Amino acid sequence: MVYQDNVIAPDEAAAWHAHLLDSPIWRQQRRVMYERELDVPRLTAHFAADDPGLPWPLGEALAQACAATGASFNSIGLNLYRDEHDSVAMHNDRLGDLVDGCPIALISLGETRRMHIRSKKHLAPRRLDLDLAPGSLLLMSWETQTHYDHGIPKQTHPLGPRISLAFRTRKPA
Ligand SMILES: O=C(O)CCC(=O)C(=O)O
Ligand SMILES: [Fe+2]
């Protein structure tokens, strides 16, 4: 796992964040848990990288993710954490839909949020806390997903919105 600060310049990251926050792309997903249907505690959006209607600035963001990592991606997932109450539970990204061995890159915009990273081995449940700053890029190898879980926990102090852009390489349908 490699964390790099300032991959996107501060002014650019701020402009991307403000624009995406106001874009009509966000959806509220529902998920069945414990036999009840609940709102996913964040808003999401998804685009194929070759979507001719790809909203600005996702084309630029994709190009920068490729340039910074040397990888190529064909899928862009977006998460909007509206405030400190939004979160994503500890999980590993589903590898079944992804091309074997391809990494996942996460660009962060807006408020800094803390990520928890935890080994899946219960005998060694050491947790790493990583603050994901705006303009940063976190590169997670494919293998990372088999050894570690990651999540963005809720916080108790007031926080403004954060957007993450997740670049992945999906298998052709
Ligand atoms: O928002 C983040 O940085 C993490 C998002 C995530 O884990 C995911 O989309 O699978
Ligand atoms: Fe994830």
From TrEMBL:
<dbReference type="InterPro" id="IPR037151">
    <property type="entry name" value="AlkB-like_sf"/>
</dbReference>
<dbReference type="GO" id="GO:0051213">
    <property type="term" value="F:dioxygenase activity"/>
</dbReference>
<feature type="domain" description="Fe2OG dioxygenase">
    <location>
        <begin position="72"/>
        <end position="171"/>
    </location>
</feature>
<dbReference type="InterPro" id="IPR027450">
    <property type="entry name" value="AlkB-like"/>
</dbReference>
<dbReference type="Pfam" id="PF13532">
    <property type="entry name" value="2OG-FeII_Oxy_2"/>
</dbReference>
<dbReference type="InterPro" id="IPR032854">
    <property type="entry name" value="ALKBH3"/>
</dbReference>
<dbReference type="InterPro" id="IPR005123">
    <property type="entry name" value="Oxoglu/Fe-dep_dioxygenase_dom"/>
</dbReference>
<keyword id="KW-0560">Oxidoreductase</keyword>
<keyword id="KW-0223">Dioxygenase</keyword>
<protein>
    <submittedName>
        <fullName>Alpha-ketoglutarate-dependent dioxygenase AlkB</fullName>
    </submittedName>
</protein>
